[in-house]
């Protein structure tokens, strides 16, 4: 059980049977007490020790489907089915975008999609069946294979929570995969929280996916969201869980710290103290 010593609050992770060691508790306390300008200076020094070369990868975005069985309160990507509009990009549309990207010098094709929409929306299941696929993961595997074979772009696949077999199947047709851990705070999934009613936002399921990618030796992107109702300590716990997975498998090539944007298109409205706390954490 992953828990803080003495807190009695398990963090629903069947993979990591660990508790914070005394020195880790001390490090957490130090990080929580250090003023932000000092933390920023420390982070900058660490960055300078490790990386002074900034690179980027020109890429095309392929939103294979905007349907999703989850309904995260801050999401601006997912949309419900619309009459007269396809649930999925066709293979021809995918290849047309990828070819244009290749012509413009792109090297990567980023597949973005909702999680398992066919389990919630009959329209999605019917459209997949009409194309000859039984799941969104089947279709993304076929689309990535086509992009790789016909354009040479390297697929990066963000296809949600999945098991080892699907990760290995997608590994065969991609250069890398990704799944944000987002957070481990239990309150996020409570009634009224941003992950209420979102089965794929269970932290243990997401950690299990990231762990399975490590076992499969898939170059991986993950990270956390900040400002969606978690505490600073819970952010550290999420980063600590990712650090443990990285120490075990060495597969996390990119770690994203993404701030929540409280714009008018999102469903949740955060209280002023939450917003102020998040703002104070990013300087
Ligand atoms: S799982 Fe992703 S795509 Fe689906 S609602 Fe949540 S944030 Fe949006």
TrEMBL record:
One GO MF term attached to the UniProt entry: 7,8-didemethyl-8-hydroxy-5-deazariboflavin synthase activity
Essential cofactor(s): [4Fe-4S] cluster
Keyword field: 4Fe-4S, Iron, Iron-sulfur, Lyase, Metal-binding, S-adenosyl-L-methionine
InterPro entries (UniProt xref): Aldolase_TIM (IPR013785), CofG_family (IPR019939), F420 (IPR034405), rSAM (IPR007197), rSAM_sf (IPR058240)
Record-annotated Radical SAM core domain positions: 54-283
Coiled-coil residue spans: none
Pathway: Cofactor biosynthesis; coenzyme F0 biosynthesis
Protein name as annotated: Radical SAM core domain-containing protein
Species for this entry: Tetradesmus obliquus
């Amino acid at each position: 059980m992953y828990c803080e010593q003495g807190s009695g609050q398990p963090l629903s992770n069947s993979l990591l049977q660990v508790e914070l060691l005394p020195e880790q508790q001390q490090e957490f306390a130090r990080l929580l007490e250090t003023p932000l300008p000092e933390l920023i200076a420390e982070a900058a020094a660490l960055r300078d020790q490790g990386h002074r070369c900034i690179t980027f990868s020109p890429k095309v975005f392929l939103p294979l489907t905007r349907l999703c069985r989850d309904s995260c309160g801050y999401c601006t990507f997912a949309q419900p089915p619309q009459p007269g509009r396809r649930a999925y990009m066709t293979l021809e549309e995918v290849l047309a975008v990828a070819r244009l990207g290749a012509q413009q010098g792109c090297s990567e094709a980023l597949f973005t999609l909702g999680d398992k929409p066919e389990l919630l929306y009959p329209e999605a299941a019917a459209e997949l069946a009409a194309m000859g696929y039984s799941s969104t993961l089947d279709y993304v595997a076929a689309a990535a294979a086509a992009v790789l074979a016909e354009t040479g772009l390297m697929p990066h696949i963000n296809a949600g929570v999945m098991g080892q077999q699907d990760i290995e199947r997608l590994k065969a047709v991609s250069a890398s995969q990704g799944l944000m851990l987002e957070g481990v705070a239990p309150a996020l999934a409570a009634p009224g929280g941003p992950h209420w009613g979102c089965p794929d936002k269970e932290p243990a399921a997401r950690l299990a996916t990231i762990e399975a990618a490590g076992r499969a030796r898939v170059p991986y992107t993950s990270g956390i969201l900040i400002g969606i109702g978690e505490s600073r300590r819970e952010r550290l716990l999420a980063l600590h869980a990712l650090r443990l997975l990285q120490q075990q498998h060495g597969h996390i090539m990119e770690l994203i710290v993404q701030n929540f944007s409280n714009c008018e298109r999102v469903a949740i409205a955060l209280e002023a103290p939450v917003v102020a706390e998040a703002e104070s954490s990013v300087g």
